[in-house]
Amino acid sequence: MSSFERVRTLLSEELFTRTAGRIAVRQLVELRSQIVSLYALLSVNACALAFTHLGLAPAWLTLGCPAVFVAVCAVRTLHWWRMRPEAMSEAQAERHLRRTTILSAVLSVGFVGWAMALSAHGGPYEQGHVAIFIAITVIGCIFCLTHLPLAAFGVTLIVTVAFLIHCLTSGNGVFIAIALNTTFVTVVMVRILANNFRTFITLTRSQFEAQRLAEENARLALSDSLTGLPNRRAFFNELEAMTDASAEAEAPFALAIFDLDRFKPINDTYGHKAGDRVLQETGRRLARFTDAGVSVARLGGDEFGALIRLPADGADVTAICDRICEALRAPIRLGETLVTAGCSAGLAVYPEAGRGAAELFDRADYALYHSKLNQRGHTTAFSQEHENAIRTERAIEAALHSPDLAREIEVQVQPILDLRTNRVVMVEGLARWTHPTLGRIAPDRFIAAAERCGAIHRLTTTLLRRALSDATRLPPGIGLSFNLSSHDLASAETVIAIMEIVRESGFDPRRLTLELTETALMRDFERACDAITLLRALGIQIALDDFGTGYSSLSYVHRLPLDKVKIDRSFMADLHAPRGERIVATILDFCRNLDLPCIVEGVETEGQLRILRRLGCRSVQGYLIGRPVRMTTLLERLDEIEAGAVEERPAPRLIA
Ligand code: C2E
Ligand code: CA
Ligand code: CA
Fold first, then answer.
1. Measured from the CB, is residue 550 less than 6 Å from ligand 1?
2. What is the pLDDT of residues 127-166, one digit of tens each?
3. Cα 430 to ligand 1 centre (Å)
4. Candidates 3.50.50.60, 3.30.70.270, 2.40.40.10, 3.20.20.190; correct CATH number of 232-382?
5. For the structural domain made of 394-646, what CATH number should be given?
6. Measuring from atom 11 of ligand 1, which residue has the nearest CA?
7. I need a surface site. Which of 452, 480, 616, 639 has the fewest CB within 10 A?
8. How far is the CA of 516 from the centre of ligand 2 (A)?
9. Ligand 1 within 6 A of CB of 622
10. pTM here?
């Protein structure tokens, strides 16, 4: 081991460790808070020593040198006082520390040389003062240089070695003792300083680590782990920042929500792993649109959001969103297969659609809902028309909670005809609501409003009670078909209430059919299955309504204990075309093969009826047979309806 290494281990490794990077900046910050004291201490001590030697030593020693020292100290103090270490780069801080270490060595040589030069003048008291000056000044320096241990060590080494040599050569026992004593004390102090510095470094490193972890946590809390995109929280943070900024300086921007059209069926068919791959690929494609003006995020599930600063060139923001939809529409490879998730978007522009973050989001969501309904795969921008519709919907929601609802609402019935017997075998109950100020409100509209505002349980039970009470007037051969909302089966409370109402009504449950739509089943398939089993145990029949309009009708027909299906009226529009006829024929065959009775809805013309008879259709419903009317009217016209079926239409070819 070299002597240098021995000294190094004796004192402490930390003393010589070159600190770098962010620690250097921190060192400089700490040093700055003490360095002013150091220069003050040096100046005061130098003045005191010069004072006791005034007249005893030459003027250049008692006045000239101290003046230079004080001037240097003042300049350095000013320099440190102006310094802003927090704003420095790491390299700058390191350079500064190096320069300070060198300067401290130079200054110690100057001070100790000066003190020794003075000790040649004056008597024993003055010489004693020199010794005290050197001892207290070096100890003071060690303290002030705690955060720059190499400099502290350099100062100690220079001063004590010089002082030791000076005293040893003087041959004066007292001075030799003072010098040895000072050396011992300073060595101990340097060791303590080195230990403290080690603690400082450990602490600073753990602070940096804690800061890094906190930053990492903050980053994770704001990003979506599956796609790597910013998450919902990050999206809303940015949205709020944008609404705040735009409130001060009008800077229009748009909020878009993108929702995959076929994510659920893909997830159901290919599994969750495939679903995740679709979301990841969607995230990747969306990320390509990110730039200074566009930021994207995953809002949850298969819903993504974008904030678009409106381009100054007035580019159409709807067109930008349509481009994004188009990119998301491109097929995605899942192993051997290609799937197309498709995407619809809703758009709300600040400030037209709203000024608050929540308001803008709700409006974009509203526009998205309209895209899904009316133009899948495209973007709908929130408009004044939507604004008016929202107002009406709010009014409808309020009216749904009114105590007068039960008086304003009624159930009309529409006949369903058996084409083999030309008899009405069933009536479908259809809700009608005439509000004193809002006028007639279409059932699909107020049912949807009731679902949204939580009034559906009350509405369904009110309507069912009314329908069953009317249905007791029907001849025994005619059953009642009643529509359930998609929310009803998901609520155990509603299912129990339905069973109770049927029991109380005295209407034979075997004459009752409940119509469900695919959305009711999609909401919570297991629950819906359980509810259906319960209801069927009472003898109630279950029909799948609007068959053929959803994505998975066929799979539900297989998986559910159904009693019948109702073919959606949209198929009637093309029935006259060969292709349309073939589709309906295929559906009818499909049902026949499964032994599943089916009713064709929306029959409006004699021509359609003729084709349906030819295809072997058994039951029909539609304006041609009869429009929805009050129960009393239907009962009055029953004979007329059945007679019409026999007289005006050719006798049915009976096909089982
Ligand atoms: P839906 O269950 O498919 O009912 C059939 C709809 O088609 C009724 O519309 C009916 O008036 C109409 N319709 C019947 N025949 C024809 C035809 O030949 N041509 C045309 N173009 N339309 C025909 P409505 O009464 O407006 O009801 C709309 C939807 O509202 C219903 O569709 C059903 O989903 C819902 N709804 C109606 N009443 C109730 C109810 O009491 N409860 C629940 N949950 N939903 C109901
Ligand atoms: Ca129906
Ligand atoms: Ca229907």
1. no
2. 999 999 999 999 999 989 989 988 999 999 999 999 999 8
3. 6
4. 3.30.70.270
5. 3.20.20.450
6. 628
7. 639
8. 8
9. yes
10. 0.61
